[in-house]
Design a protein that fits this description.
Elements lengths: L5 H7 L9 H10 L8 H6 L1 H20 L14 H16 L6 E5 L5 H10 L2 E6 L2 H13 L6 E5 L12 E7 L8 H11 E14 L8 H14 L7 H10 L3 E6 L26 H16 L7 H20 L3 E10 L3
Parallel strand pairs: 1-2, 1-4, 2-3, 4-5
Antiparallel strand pairs: 5-7, 6-7
Helix pairs in contact: 1-4, 2-4, 2-12, 5-6, 8-10, 9-12, 11-12
Length: 341
């Protein structure tokens, strides 16, 4: 579930950043992006700093509004958001054939929401790999809270250069995480290296679809909003992701699950929709959160710059909804990739 209230949100704002450094970190983060004169090459070159700043700044907002699993899901008419998120995670576990005694790697694990759900569902032992210290400390705390600290753990590392031995894992998955990689081929090659021969890697990727026109000004504005609001150096196309997985050495099966979702994947953050079960994600809920953060900042409970974080996250949400409605963007380009024997 999401964090309970305002003080929970305020207590986590800034992650591992000191209160006095938060506003400066917001400045530096924003300047990486095109809305503030930033360039793609600099985002890719400095991806570690950019992505770490993003998750220090954004994680508390994510947990407050979304819960412990920071991802979208295809969704049926009679499902709640949280039910669809769990099913989306189970879908990966089933395609990977996860079961007890398997050793599994979650690449870019966030605070471990999917890791814990998949571990409970499958009985597998799962290691979460993440390069953000605050998210690892929060995930470790939650693993202990839910009694999973004996079978699930974390490694602080960059997924472009994992400090892990070759042919270690029985399965690897990534849920809306490797979109932060500056180079998909390099990232997938690292995953290929640590995966045992004959075993599989499953991923949900954030991608621009074939409907995206790189020469269309409105399409590029939506793309830039998504990058700003979600800590992305760039957004690859579905074709680029597929080719990158093949170039890394995998045999690949793929599908864009957004195309067959009974309800639009962006529905939870669509400002035209209202829901009591996920109120904090609605237009009214976001209005309350935005003003709550400004109040907390004005009375010095939240650090200076917190309101600006809320603003760029909202801009990212607007880009996601617009990109989803235009069908130029998907957060659930799914592929199952096998490392040959």
């Amino acid at each position: 579930m999401a964090k309970a209230g305002a003080m929970d949100l305020a207590s986590g704002l800034g992650g591992n950043l000191s209160r006095r450094d938060l506003a400066s970190a917001v400045d530096q983060y924003e300047k990486y992006h095109s809305f503030y004169g930033g360039e793609e090459d600099k985002r890719k070159f400095n991806y570690t700093d950019m992505v770490n700043k993003y998750y220090d700044l954004a994680t508390s907002f994510y947990e407050y509004g979304w819960g412990q699993s920071f991802h979208f899901a295809n969704r049926f008419q009679d499902e709640t958001l949280q039910e669809s998120i769990k099913r989306h995670e189970h879908f990966l576990a089933l395609h990977l054939g996860l079961k007890p005694e398997m050793k599994v790697l979650d690449v870019g694990c966030g605070i471990g929401g999917p890791l814990r759900e998949i571990a409970r569902f499958s009985g597998a032992s799962i290691t979460g790999l993440n390069n953000n210290g605050y998210q690892i400390s929060r995930g470790t705390e939650l693993n202990k809270k839910y009694g999973l600290d004996k079978t699930c753990d974390f490694v602080k590392a960059d997924f472009m250069k994992m400090p892990l031995a070759d042919n270690t894992y029985d399965a690897v998955y990534a849920i809306e995480a490797t979109c932060h990689a500056p180079d998909a081929v390099g990232c997938y090659k690292e995953i290929w290296r640590v995966l045992k021969p004959g075993q599989c890697f499953a991923a949900y990727e954030w991608c621009m679809t074939d409907a995206y026109d790189p020469h269309n000004e409105h399409h590029n504005k939506m793309k830039a909003e998504i990058e700003l609001g979600n800590g992305l150096p760039d957004i690859r196309t579905t074709r680029q992701c597929l080719e990158a997985a093949k170039e890394a050495g995998f045999e690949v099966w793929n599908d864009d699950l957004a195309k067959t979702s009974p309800l639009p994947w962006y529905l939870p953050i669509d400002p035209g929709r209202f829901s009591l079960s996920s109120f904090r994600l609605t237009r009214l809920g976001r209005f309350f959160t935005r003003n709550l953060v400004w109040v907390l900042e004005s009375i010095k409970v939240a650090p200076e710059g917190s309101g600006r974080v809320s603003q760029f996250l909202e801009k990212g949400a607007d880009g996601l909804v617009a990109g989803g409605k235009k069908e130029i963007f998907t957060p659930m380009y799914f592929f199952l990739a096998r490392k040959p024997l």
